[in-house]
Amino acid sequence: MDNKLIDKPTSSPSDGRSRDPTYHTTSADYSLPNDAVEYARLSDQAEGITQMMHGTPIHARLSFPRLLLDIGCGTGIITRHLGLTYPDAKVYGVDLSPVPSDPEKAPANVEYILGDVRELLKSSDARLARGRADFVFSRLLIAGMADWRGYVRDMASLLRPGVGWLEIQDLALDWYLDGSLVSDSWEWLRALFCAAENKGWDLRCGRNAKGYMEEAGLVDVEVKEYRLPMGDWLVKTQPETRKIGENAAREYGMLYWHAIPRILKGMGYHEERIQEFRRQSVNDLRGREGLELRFYVTFGRKA
Predict the structure, then answer these.
(1) In the 3-class helix/strand/coil scheme, how is 193-223 assigned residue by residue?
(2) Parallel, antiparallel, or unpaired for β 135-139 and 291-302?
(3) pLDDT digit string (tens) for 115-148?
(4) Residue 222: CA atoms inside 13 Å, Cβ hemisphere, count?
(5) Do 254 and 16 contact (CB within 8 A), yes or no?
(6) How many Å from the N-terminal Cα to the C-terminal Cα in the chain?
(7) What value, to the nearest 5°, has the Cα angle with vertex 253 and ends 252 and 254?
(8) Using only C-alpha atoms, what is the Rg of the chain?
């Protein structure tokens, strides 16, 4: 493969870089927006991820669950899926912002909880009682979850012994080109990793989730790894990657553009340096055949 540039770059002047997004009004340090544009992106991304995973949004081996939790539920897509799949169970979706209204009305067994799940646990919310959940799910909390070890321990504490499953679907922000790591030379991404470490984030949480689960005492931990391409170059051999690849090529440049100044805030960078990092990200993520991330699905059971 010659790593030729795809016709359209990741970002263009009309791709939303000039928009002024809104964000969660919470003390939680979450770097992505919560506006209508972001919700549309999340909905399209969720569909692409399900296709990438061959139509299987959930991997844990659930058997007649009674209580299911979707943490960081966003638009509520997975919450609704769980409610429809398990109509006799109670399903709670938890998020920092209110779930947007949707023409697909949530089934009667679904309820949304507003707030930071770890703070809610401190408040002894009866809906999040420890030792009762059959399933706890989260996807793509990479953009602001601090203390992953603590988070996984807390989620494990919610599970019913012997039958409860925790499933984490997330990324490691290491970019590969033709199978070889390429992003370790990207200055702007190194700066993000440094800032993330300062905040207690883990930008490789997808890859590290197995270790966190095992440290929390979960058993039967399994990992499934998926290739998430930038663009549609992988479609010939893996047609299920088309939608998520197109979503990544269209949206990821804009995501980084808006996230860079928020993540680097307080790190001592001058404005011109921030703008240079933004320009570097656009150039490095420009549509190139062979460029991809890894998406990890990790699930484990409470003994």
Answers:
(1) HHHHHHHCCCCCHHHHHHHHHHHCCEEEEEE
(2) unpaired
(3) 999 999 998 889 999 999 999 999 999 987 889 9
(4) 8
(5) yes
(6) 47
(7) 90
(8) 19
Q: Measure the CA angle with vertex 166, ends 162 and 169; round to 5°.
A: 155
Q: What gap in Å lies between CA 174 and CA 167, rounded to an integer?
A: 21
Model confidence over 158-214: pLDDT tens digits? Answer: 999 999 999 999 999 999 999 999 999 999 999 999 999 998 999 999 999 999 999
Nearest to 208 by CA among 267, 253, 145, 264: 145
Please give the Cα distance from 93 to 78 (Å, whole number). 9
Q: In the structure encoding, which two tokens stand for residue 10, read together?
A: 């990741």
262, two tokens: 């928020």
Task: Tell me the residue length of the chain.
Answer: 303
Contact 166, 136 (CB under 8 A): yes
Q: Let me know: does 158 contact 120? Beta carbons within 8 Å.
A: no
How many Å apart are CA 164 and CA 65, to the nearest integer? Answer: 9
What rounded mean pLDDT belongs to the chain? 89
Which whole-number Å values give the CA distances from 154 to 43, 103, 218, 231, in the listed order?
27, 33, 12, 37
The three-state DSSP-derived secondary structure of the chain is: CCCCECCCCCCCCCCCCCCCCCCCCCCCCCCCCCCHHHHHHHHHHHHHHHHHCCCCCCCCCCCCCCEEEEECCCCCHHHHHHHHHCCCCEEEEEECCCCCCCCCCCCCCEEEEECCHHHHHHCCCHHHCCCCECEEEEECCCCCCCCHHHHHHHHHHCECCCCCEEEEEEEEEEEEECCEECHHHCHHHHHHHHHHHHHCCCCCHHHHHHHHHHHCCEEEEEEEEEEEECCCCCCCCCHHHHHHHHHHHHHHHHHHHHHHHHHCCCCCCCHHHHHHHHHHHHHHCCCECCEEEEEEEEEEEEC
